[in-house]
Design goal:
By secondary structure, the protein is an alpha+beta fold. The protein has a single domain (3-106), classed as Arc Repressor Mutant, subunit A, CATH 1.10.10.10. It has six helices and three strands. Strands 1-3-2 form a three-stranded antiparallel sheet. Strand 2 (62-67) and strand 3 (70-75) form a beta hairpin. Helix 1 (3-13) packs antiparallel against helix 4 (46-58), helix 2 (16-28) packs across helix 4 (46-58) and helix 3 crosses helix 4. The two termini are 26 Å apart. Keywords: DNA-binding, Transcription, Transcription regulation. GO terms for molecular function: DNA binding; DNA-binding transcription factor activity. It comes from Primorskyibacter flagellatus.
Length: 109
């Protein structure tokens, strides 16, 4: 990942609703959520939600799949991994044992 991609991802997450959407989709896991369900859960109107989902999709942090007439959204785990890897690229000055507590905290149980 390059710096420009990371900046796009951070810009997408720097708005409260988009951060809430991204965290909600991470919690939803592989099942994802429809745009309507996301909006209903977060109390956000459809047109506002659509704009926010577009920003997150362009940043590479979420992906979508069409299901008939609706669209289901998912957290893009590769995009998230890329962003975390970018942040930790030069971590700990060549002493990986110092990074292990952070890695343990990020790992799924």
């Amino acid at each position: 990942m390059d710096k420009n991609y990371a900046l796009d991802a951070f810009a997408a997450l720097s708005q409260s609703t988009r951060l809430d959407v991204f965290r909600l989709l991470i919690k939803a896991g592989g099942a994802g959520m429809s745009a309507g369900d996301i909006g209903e859960t977060l109390g956000v109107r459809q047109n506002t939600m659509s704009a926010n989902l577009g920003v997150l999709a362009r940043s590479g942090l979420i992906r979508s799949a069409r299901e008939g007439r609706s669209i289901r959204y998912f957290a893009d785990m590769e995009g998230m991994r890329g962003l975390l890897a970018f942040l930790m690229e030069d971590c700990c000055g060549g002493r990986p044992e110092l990074c292990q507590p952070i890695i343990n905290e990020l790992a799924c149980c």
